[in-house]
What we know:
The protein has 93 residues and is an alpha+beta fold. It has one domain (2-81). The protein has helices at 2-29, 33-42, 47-57, 59-65; strands at 68-73, 76-81. It has a two-stranded antiparallel sheet with strand order 1-2.
Amino acid sequence: FYMLLVSYIAEIIYINQQKEDLKRVMDLLTLKEHHARTLLIYHRWDVERLLAVLVEKGKDRLFSEAGLTLLESNNKTSLCSQTSINCDICIEV
C-alpha cells in the first residue's frame, strides 16, 4: 500500500509540474494552451531547453521545428499546426 501511495503522490507532483511548465510557456510566449503543449512535447517538457532554442535560433525556428507555423497578416501574428506531422518523440502522426 505504501508504494502505491508514493507512486500516486509522485504522479500528482509530476502532473502539477507539467501544468506549471505549460502556464509558464503560455505566459512567456503569449500562446494558447495547445500550441504551448506542442512546443513542450517536442522539447520533452524541458522548459530550459525550449527557451534556449528560442534565444539561440529565434521564434520562427522554435515553432517550425515543432511543426507549428507562424502566420503574420495585418500586424497580427497567429500560429497554425501543420495538418499532418510526424512526432519523433511519441512516434505518432
